[in-house]
Amino acid sequence: MKSYISFSLPLPMGFAGAFYACSIPSDGPNKITEFRQSKFNNVVPLRPASQKWSVAQDRTPLYKPLRKHTHHFQHLSFTDEFYVKHAQRLDEVRNAFREAGENGVEGLMMIDAVQRLGIDYHFNEEIEAILQRQYTNVSSHGESIQDLYEVALRFRLLRQEGYHVPADVFNNFKIKEGKFKQDLTKDIKGLLGLYEASQLRIEGEDILDEADGFSSSILKAGLEHLDHQEATLVEHTLEHPYHKSLARFMAKSFLNDLQGQNGWMIVLQELAKMDFNVVQSTHQRELLQIIKWWKDLGLAEELKFARDQPLKWYMWPMAIFPDPSLSDQRIELTKPISMIYIIDDIFDVYGTLDELTLFTEAVNKWDIAAFEKLPNYMKMCFKSLDDITNEISNKVYKEHGWNPVDSLRKAWVSLCNAFLVEAEWFASGHVPKAQEYLKNGVISSGVHIVLVHSFFLLGHGITRRNVELVDNFPRIITSTAAILRLWDDLGSAKDENQNGHDGSYIECYMKEHQGSSMENARQRVTHMISDLWKSLNKECLSQQPFSASFRQGSLNIARMVPLMYSYDDNQSLPHLEDHVKSLLFEEFPY
Asked: Could you give the CA distance from residue 447 to residue 476 in angstroms, rounded to a whole number?
């Protein structure tokens, strides 16, 4: 049975101020919640839209005329019969896992399928048992299998779960001269597996660099000789390798393309469709709570110049914490993320340099009395920031026995200091050295804020040593932040024929290296992002105190970046819009 009432929900930036008409359960809030888009036409930014120092900034859509779209989501009421059937399918898949575990490659294929469908959280024990058995066999007897697909799949699945599998398992597929065997060019399935495996490489693994180049070049060259279905699969894999994609965001596409007539494949498809709708319902409830919180906070009404995008902000925690059980963590994490955007708008759109300096000094002191001399909008912003910080600190203390208030305040101080540096650069016309820009940009990206809050909200491994580590920008955080910073700059860099400054690494690099072309600068940034992925991979493989959920969250931020910062010519985010519709507003028939 479907019961709902409707309300208007402002979409993320990049939706051109569109509205979704959403639905909530009839037993939800008693009154209809309506958000109205702020009118930005009278707001005059202090800097041109082309100037961009901070990650959250992209002013253009705020000044475009609004257009409206209407989409409905219907909050499903699942019957007892539905849940019984869901439980039966879970048991059937678990039984299939036990049977497939005796067959090496089939067990691996099942793991790959449930992970791509985003339902692996149901089968952690079964997956661990199969992978442990596979790892023990390979460690004891070496990799003797000559099938490239199986070797590549085993390597990827083991390594992404933190097992130390050497890259030299692929030496069996090379000739004496050190090149990959020519007959592999006909093995499309094996090449796809090799390309996927190469995405988990770390610094110094030359064979995986070669595997990436070899597999991608052969697959691209052979596209015209494949049928439509094979060509589509190859193109999708090259554009969205599993390790650099968000499984739940891609699950519908994978499910629609999934083929197979064996027993477990059919059951898996049915389970995935049912599970998708259950999780979608959870996300809808969370979103409603966030929208109510945001409206009650009152900043959207008082800070007309700032962005009003709770749906976009929620998409970050949705990606970072995909486990449906982490509902509280997703809701709480959206709150500091919203403040990153609001404070960014204060620095980039509205505040004068004198005001921004006083604001930053007051944040450093973290004293409400220090804000008395500031404009009212800054007082309101800090009051909200202080309340959110204290509420989350109290929640963490009650649940995990550690008060993180000092760590959270320290992180906000670092962010505001970095924002002020960028404001001073702009005000003085100073273009910093590329490395100086990136060092500051890692902090102003806001990633440290997000991951520090994530660490405490998860509550895993909170010790004095680990708190000191997370406070001081460990490499797992800085690598993620640099990927975000550089990808954003890569997407927003101006064409060679355009004038003005965009406040990006590319601009800083080209000024520092006179004579360097835009194309050379972009290639350098692309290479840097590739190296940063290697660094992030290494951090997730190394023995470190951070939990698997925290490491996964760091990876998921890096995976989310292309969706959040790939603007089209209309300054919209079409790929993000498609995923929002799919994940939150479109039920999966089953």
From this structure: 11
CA 405 – CA 400 distance, rounded (Å): 13
Q: What are phi and psi of 439, to 5 degrees?
A: -60, -45
Distances (CA, A) of 95 to 102, 103, 265, 345, 491: 12, 14, 13, 53, 46
CB atoms within 10 A of CB 325: 9
Quick count: other Cβ atoms within 10 Å of Cβ 147? Answer: 14
Strand partners, 180: 174
Please, are residues 199 and 536 in contact by the beta-carbon 8 Å criterion? no
- Collapsed DSSP state (helix, strand, coil) of residue 245: coil
In sequence order, what DSSP letters do the residues of 407-473 get, joined into one string? HHHHHHHHHHHHHHHHHHHHHHT----HHHHHHHHHHHTSHHHHHHHHHHHHT-S--HHHHHHHHT-
Q: What angle do CA 75, 578, 113 make, to 5 degrees?
A: 80
Closest C-alpha among 360, 501, 373, 473 to residue 420: 360
* 397, amino acid identity: Y
Mean pLDDT of the chain: 85
DSSP 180: B
Interatomic CA distance for residues 413 and 360, integer angstroms: 8
User: Contact at 8 Å (CB) between 465 and 568?
Assistant: no
- Burial track 157-180 (b if 16+ CB lie within 10 A, e otherwise): bbbbbebebebebbeebbeeeeeb
CB-CB contact of 505 with 525 (8 Å): yes
Q: What is the pLDDT of residues 171-210, one digit of tens each?
A: 999 998 889 999 999 999 999 999 999 999 999 999 999 9
What are the backbone dihedrals phi and psi of residue 306, each rounded to the nearest 5 degrees, phi first? Answer: -90, 160
Give the integer Cα–Cα distance in Å for 376 and 280: 39
Task: Please give the model's pTM, rounded to 2 decimal places.
Answer: 0.87
Spatial separation of the C-alpha atoms in residues 327 and 329, rounded to whole Å: 5
**Tokens 């064979």, residue located:** 207
Contact status, residue 54 vs residue 348, Cβ threshold 8 Å: yes
The residue among 137, 17, 13 whose CA lies nearest residue 66 is: 17
Residue 576 contacts residue 14 (beta carbons within 8 Å):
yes
DSSP secondary-structure letter at 174?
B
Quickly count helices (H) and strands (E) in the chain.
23, 2
Residue found under tokens 């800070």: 303
Residues with Cβ < 8 Å from 446, sequence gap 6 or more? Answer: 55, 56, 337, 340, 344, 415
- Residues contacting 566, CB < 8 A, separation 6+: 491, 573, 575
pLDDT in tens, 421-449: 999 999 999 999 999 999 999 999 999 99
Q: How far apart are CA 362 and CA 385, in angstroms?
A: 12
Pair 110, 157: CB distance under 8 Å: no
Q: Residue 549 belongs to what H/E stretch? A: helix 548-565
Longest dimension (CA), the chain: 74
Task: Write out the two tokens for 283.
Answer: 């996300």
Phi, psi torsion values for 461, nearest 5 degrees: 65, 40
